[in-house]
Structure formats: C-alpha cells, structure tokens
Amino acid sequence: MTAPPDDLLRRILTTTRVVAIVGLSPDPVRPSHYVGRYLQLRGMRILPVNPGQAGGTILGERVWRDLAEIPAQAQVDMVDIFRRSDQVLPIVQAALDHLPALRTVWMQIGVENPEAAALARARGVQVVMNRCPKIEYQRLMGELRMGGFATGIISSRRG
pTM, whole model, 2 decimals? Predict the structure, then answer.
C-alpha cells in the first residue's frame, strides 16, 4: 500500500466538518476517545457510533447504534473506523448506502481493507488506510514536536 500524499491528507483534514467515528469509546484513555476529542477541538463535529453506548452521549454528542441511524441532514463527510480490518467492509458499505455527503473513509492505524477501499473509491470516495487523523493533522499542521508531544515541554520533574 502506498502512503497517501501529504497534499491529499492536508486537504481532507482542512475541509472535513463532520466525522462519524465508528468505535468511539466513552473511556477517555482509549485512542478513539482522544482522537475524537482532538478533532472536536479542531472544529470538527464528532458523531459517535458505538452499539454498546447507543442513546447515550460521548463528547457531548448523541451516540448512534450504527451509521444507518445517522440522519442524512447530519452531512457526515468522513467516517473514521476504529475496528479490526475484517470488520471494515460492512461499515464502508453502510457508509456508502446511508451517508450521502460522504467524501472520505479513514481507517485507523493497523486497519486496512483493500476490498472496502476499492468499493469506496469506485463510488468516488477518498480512502486513507493505516493512518491516524490526529497524528496526521499534528504532523501536517506543525503541531507535532520532538517525541510526539505537542506541549513543547517534556519533563519528569515534579512541579
């Protein structure tokens, strides 16, 4: 798999407004949660998709059971998938069937599904696999500093 070009990633990350995150956890120490929170802090609306949490709220947003439940007027333009690679195809199929504004399917680090990617691309949807939008945003927008920390200060000293 070839890495997507930086200009494509930058364009996706600067034009995306509404992200459905499949597998968003309510646990703040889980990667899906802090990725969602980070994207939210960058101005994106996050729509959590987690059947075990459906009807509740995560990051101040209603949690949806699946992508088919999200109303079309939500204008989801990106789906970020925190699921195993073998679970991606039906998620992408549901996204293509139920999200009319969809422009990007993003599969998280370690997640790749060439069949799902081909299906999305055939419908004119951009695909990013095996990448994290939080990491890519920080890298491309100059927020990532030495060691991957955005604080600029790395210390183990007590305050």
Answer: 0.89
